[in-house]
Amino acid sequence: MASRVLLILCVPSLFFFLAASTKEYPGQPKIFDVRNYGARADSQRDNAFAFTKAWNEACQWSYGRSTVYIPSGIFYLRQVTFSGPCKSSITFFIRGTLLAPRNPYAINQEEWILFKYVDNLTVTGGGLLDGQGSYSWPLNDCNKNTNCRTLAMNIGFAFVKSSKINGLRSINSKMGHFNLFSVEDFNITGVTITAPGDSPNTDGIKIGKSSHMQIYNVTIGTGDDCIAILDGTSNLDISDVRCGPGHGISVGSLGRYKEEKNVQGLTVRNSIINGTTDGLRIKTWAKSVSQISVSNFLYENIQMINVGNPIVIDQQYCPHGQCDSPGKYASHVQIKDVKYNNIWGTSTSKEALKMQCSKTFPCQDVELSNINLHYVGRDGLVTALCENVGGSIRGKIVPANCRINLFLPSNIITDSNSTLEDKMQGIFQLANTTQTQRFHQLPLWILWRLWNSRNILYFQRRHVPWETTLQLAQMDLQEWNEAVTPSHINSHGTTIRSHIPNWRRPTNGWVKCNVDGSFINGNIPGKGGWIVRDHNGRYEFAGQAIGNCIDNALECEFQALLMAMQHCWSKGYRRICFEGDNKEMFDLINGLKMHFGAFNWIRDILWWASKFEQTQFQWTNRQNNKPADILARTPLQHQFLFANHFWVPRVISFALHCDYTSSI
């Protein structure tokens, strides 16, 4: 009897325990396995209904984080949309493979898989999205048909906030892999995106009208842009990207539609771009209809490996012959405050640096710093093309022939239809703005150059174009600023100017020969001086020589360079960089200019260059060529015609010390 009473008392207690164990408590996570909703990993059955049902229940879970779980296996999906808002944080965990239909027309939305109106979403698991795009690529004619039918991208995120993608893989999209529209506070990391280099329009990550995003530690190789940044994007940080094949990291194209928004706050750093057609590209429509701006960009610490066009600003973009005349239209997109710092590597085209900015809205505040790009071909040297670019150059720049104006004050300055009075008024307006303190004295230098041009016209009957007058005034201002800029003491106790780029040591295994000429007049023989240092900046030897009587200063520079080359050859050096401060001479040697009067000099120099294993000819400013300049102007002792200085000449010891300490 007692045992029966005990059993009766225990049974209600057991029911109470079971009821309590099944009650949901706040903060309790829950997993929603798609198999429990009818999903099958047979790679044939459409699992969209099962996935959607699992998502809807997980999205309505209000007791803590929910997880939609896709296990290992191949799950076929025709198309699916996962909508919010959800009641709490949600994770979409993909361990297996999601397989798209082969038929591109089976998907009637822009993205095969779409997440929209969701906050606090995490997509992770290391799974694979297979777009099976190879069956669709032959149908893609968008490269020649402006009205082509767009195909679906692998996955999309629209109006999603405070979310992230981690460790996902995407292959063979039909037309693009990740599409992000109007997302905010969004991170992408550990992602791998793959498609053949010849697959059409398979962008890796496409971003539009989004803000506060981070993309880092990703590997992308496709047939289009690794990352495409469209209008309305702001505060985007990209780092540790391995890009290639593809079309590089691209901004644009911009300006085609009236409702477009500004693009601002882009950082791309610590990345490698390998085997792409383009590297870092900004492109705007020449025939633009919107007046927007592209601003506050930083490209830093990026290696280029056999890239077609490493650095590109293209404001003449007009594909498929939509502009009736090349160069007829000028983009209305304003590009400003763009910095390129420490970009190095190899280019498969001669024009490794190509900036073609708008004539109507020239690029402003473009800064090039420590650019070192080399052409891998054998049919010439690396070059640059820079048009309508305003900004500054710092440090070593290869290719060195990018002409960046120290200022481009307003459109009126570059407008060929405006009068000289209008141009002067625009210059004075610029000089009085707070943003351009270093240009306050520019009008004075322009007036000086105008007076100088007047004298040339009166006495020599030679007209100086106003563009040349402005460029010469800019050079005068730069030299003046260098002369009056306060100095500071570096860590070695040497006084150096704070803004003047230091003398740079040559590449490991090379030596550098700084050379200069000294010309007085045609009746006095021209002199030359040169100094050779190794890759550690250590002194090797120096030389001085008196040459023949020549006609002008340019020929004197050529003569000094020839004597230096012959001396270096006799010393047995075979990989050498020749550097000097006469820009015209180095532009002529590198094929950037033509001057038939210098033809014989250039022919002799190139003949001597062929006797070395490898040579480089590069320009530097006068400050960085000071030891050679001193030697060229210093008289030789005892009426000698040539001097080989095994020991450091006393006259250049201090300048040599400054170069060495500032290059550390």
From TrEMBL:
Top-level taxonomic group: Eukaryota
Signal peptide feature range: 1-21
Localization (cell): Secreted, Cell wall
UniProt cross-references to SMART domains, sorted A to Z: PbH1
Gene3D superfamilies from the UniProt entry: Ribonuclease H-like superfamily/Ribonuclease H (3.30.420.10), Single-stranded right-handed beta-helix, Pectin lyase-like (2.160.20.10)
One Pfam short name: RVT_3
GO molecular function: nucleic acid binding; polygalacturonase activity; RNA-DNA hybrid ribonuclease activity
Record-annotated active site: 247
Entry keyword annotation includes Cell wall biogenesis/degradation: yes
PROSITE patterns named among the record's database cross-references: POLYGALACTURONASE
Alphabetized UniProt keyword annotations: Cell wall, Cell wall biogenesis/degradation, Glycosidase, Hydrolase, Secreted, Signal
Predominant localisation class: secreted
Domain RNase H type-1: 514-633
Family: Belongs to the glycosyl hydrolase 28 family.
Protein name in the entry: Glycoside hydrolase family 28 protein / polygalacturonase (Pectinase) family protein
Organism (species): Arabidopsis thaliana (Mouse-ear cress)
Gene that this sequence comes from: NMA
